Amino acid sequence: MASLDTPPAVTNTVKWRFPSVHPEGRKYVLISAAITILFLFAIWDELGFALIGVTIWVAAFFRDPIRVTPQGPGMIISPADGLVTMIERVPVPREIAGPEGLNEAMRVRVSIFMSVFDVHINRTPMAGTIRQVVYIAGKFLNADLDKASDENERQHFVMETHDGTRVGFTQIAGLVARRIVTFVKPGDIVAGGQRFGLIRFGSRVDVFLPDDYAPQVALGQRCLAGETLVGLKGGVAAQGVAQ
To answer: Which of 3, 112, 126, 135 is 20 to 30 Å apart from 203, CA to CA?
Structure first.
């Protein structure tokens, strides 16, 4: 019998690979590269060299790295890369309140701010069925502001798990962001950590935790979409988070 101190045999290996560019961003990379080549060889080569950096940044903005999503009951996973800027109990947005939405009048909202340097592919926080997708036209205030939740362009989602748990999450446009893109529609059955959309360029994603879930992140913590545990059913709130 193997000793408890003996590491398990490795049957497979995983190698790092350079992140691919999401199809939604490939046209922007090609446009940027074409302009760069034009300046390098036909107009102003000094500016062309500077535009090489811009092209690299555009490709990095739309990067789509592989993520390994934790599996298990009662877990809500981060829908976005970025910085946790707010954790507070707030009224549920009216567009997704009521019996067809999140039901409860109040929920804990975890807000994740994405800078222009973060991965902008958003991922579903749980496995389940998309029940609602509600787009709201609005302003383009700094997404880090609390009032951006009510005044900015945004897109709400409600999903329901197999046990009837409903989770809401919202894509919010920001100062630079001018386009919210979604890859899912009501009725779609999705896996936890599945890509559901993106926002161009820099913005915020909110996730609304059910009452029996405790936040597992703290203010100032950085999250990875599809990997970081944000909420846990019946769990204890993360250190520094109000109960």
So the answer is: 126
Q: Does residue 58 surpass a pLDDT of 90?
A: no
> What tokens appear for 1 in the block?
């019998």
> Higher model confidence: residue 183 or residue 29?
183
For the chain, how far is it from start to end, CA to CA, in angstroms?
Answer: 46
| Sheet with 82-91, side-by-side order of all strands | 189-190, 128-136, 154-160, 166-173, 203-209, 106-114, 82-91, 222-223
Q: Is 46 exposed, middle or buried (0-12, 13-18, 19+ CB in 10 A)?
A: exposed
pLDDT for 49? 79
Segment 10-38 shows an average pLDDT of: 75
Q: Is 115 a catalytic residue?
A: no
